[in-house]
Amino acid sequence: MSKPSLTFALSKGRLLDEAAALLKKAGIEMASDINSRKLVIPDTQGRFSFFIVKPVDVPTYVEYGVADVGIAGRDVLLESHADVHQPLDLRIGLCKMVVASPKATAKRNYKDLSAVRIATKYPHVTTEYFTRRGVPVEIIPLSGSVELAPLLGLSDRIVDLVATGRTLAENGLEVIEPICDISARLVINRASYQIKRKSISDLIQLLAAVIPA
């Protein structure tokens, strides 16, 4: 069997099913179940070799050329500042990055909080956001279950992703301000884009034709 023309990094977790469905609509189908324990999966036509990795690692795999292309959320791209080409907003994995607070303190002004502690999985994005606003904050980096932080007194507020808001509501939190809209992007290694331009251009055209409205 000939070597696949493109290596492709995909995110584990919530985005994987949506990405696989979009690829299938574009005529690209994986040869194995995406929810199996396999971390490297070919497509059925031998054109791609898919790597299933942690969402935060997709930009790194692509930036360093281990993967020619990938699908990554805008959240991890903003956080990583990875130097990758982003030709397509795929309109999947839709959600918002927001600042949220316990309902009891949601209306308190930042000036009323002597030292605002913000728990988040996105310390760089959060720091940049509050720096632009001129609000001094203490960032508390967490890798998961960010909603627990204000409930247990670890932070005053959180910065996290919200799709329906259900998880926030169930934990007594509410959105107090949006930061940005989030969706998944096609990302491409800059050197690969030059060396494998035909294969990558074909992929871009296939995906562009099936992006949700």
Q: What's this model, at a glance?
A:
The chain is built from 8 helices and 11 strands.
Q: Element order, helices and strands?
A: EHEEHEHEEEHEHEHEEHH
Strand content: 25-35%
* Average predicted confidence as pLDDT: 93
CATH superfamily of the largest domain: Periplasmic binding protein-like II
User: Which blocks of ≥5 consecutive residues have pLDDT under 50?
Assistant: none
The CATH top-level class label of the largest domain? Alpha Beta
**Strand order, biggest sheet?**
2-3-1-4-11-5
* Bulk shape: elongated
The number of domains: 2
Q: How helical, in percent, are the residues?
A: 25-40%
The assigned CATH architecture of the largest domain is 3-Layer(aba) Sandwich
Q: Tell me about the biggest sheet?
A: 6 strands, mixed
**Pairing-aware structural class of the strands and helices?**
alpha/beta
Q: Give the N-to-C terminal Cα separation.
A: 37 Å
Outline the structure in words.
The longest helix is centred in the N-terminal third of the chain and has 12 residues, at 14-25. Helix 4 links the parallel strand 7 and strand 8. A 6-stranded mixed sheet has the order 2-3-1-4-11-5. Strands 8-7-9-6-10 form a 5-stranded mixed sheet. The protein folds into 2 domains: 6-93 and 183-208, D-Maltodextrin-Binding Protein, domain 2, CATH 3.40.190; 95-181, Periplasmic binding protein-like II (D-Maltodextrin-Binding Protein, domain 2). The two termini are 37 Å apart. It is of the alpha/beta class and 213 residues long. Helices cover 30% and strands 30% of the residues.
